[in-house]
Amino acid sequence: MSLLITDECINCDVCEPECPNNAISVGPQIYVIDPALCTECVGHYDTPQCREVCPVDCIIGDPRHPESASELEQKFRRLTGQA
């Protein structure tokens, strides 16, 4: 599933540059993740890099965008032109 940044975000700026898909951007109040671009780093890394660097653990699975590992792999292929 896509990831979601919760209201606990402190706008520390460490997650955005870690995203290989450029899915993270500055929102009106906190950083946001574009579910159309988030693959949980599938195809790039073994674990979501934003979660690895987040100092407050405010990045969770987005229940509004459930996706299987296979679907995330397909999204990765589509985003990188490997489809």
From TrEMBL:
<keyword id="KW-0004">4Fe-4S</keyword>
<dbReference type="GO" id="GO:0046872">
    <property type="term" value="F:metal ion binding"/>
</dbReference>
<keyword id="KW-0408">Iron</keyword>
<keyword id="KW-0677">Repeat</keyword>
<protein>
    <submittedName>
        <fullName>YfhL family 4Fe-4S dicluster ferredoxin</fullName>
    </submittedName>
</protein>
<dbReference type="GO" id="GO:0005737">
    <property type="term" value="C:cytoplasm"/>
</dbReference>
<keyword id="KW-0479">Metal-binding</keyword>
<dbReference type="InterPro" id="IPR047927">
    <property type="entry name" value="YfhL-like"/>
</dbReference>
<dbReference type="InterPro" id="IPR050157">
    <property type="entry name" value="PSI_iron-sulfur_center"/>
</dbReference>
<keyword id="KW-0249">Electron transport</keyword>
<dbReference type="InterPro" id="IPR017900">
    <property type="entry name" value="4Fe4S_Fe_S_CS"/>
</dbReference>
<keyword id="KW-0411">Iron-sulfur</keyword>
<dbReference type="InterPro" id="IPR017896">
    <property type="entry name" value="4Fe4S_Fe-S-bd"/>
</dbReference>
<keyword id="KW-0813">Transport</keyword>
<dbReference type="GO" id="GO:0051539">
    <property type="term" value="F:4 iron, 4 sulfur cluster binding"/>
</dbReference>
<dbReference type="Pfam" id="PF00037">
    <property type="entry name" value="Fer4"/>
</dbReference>
<feature type="domain" description="4Fe-4S ferredoxin-type">
    <location>
        <begin position="1"/>
        <end position="29"/>
    </location>
</feature>
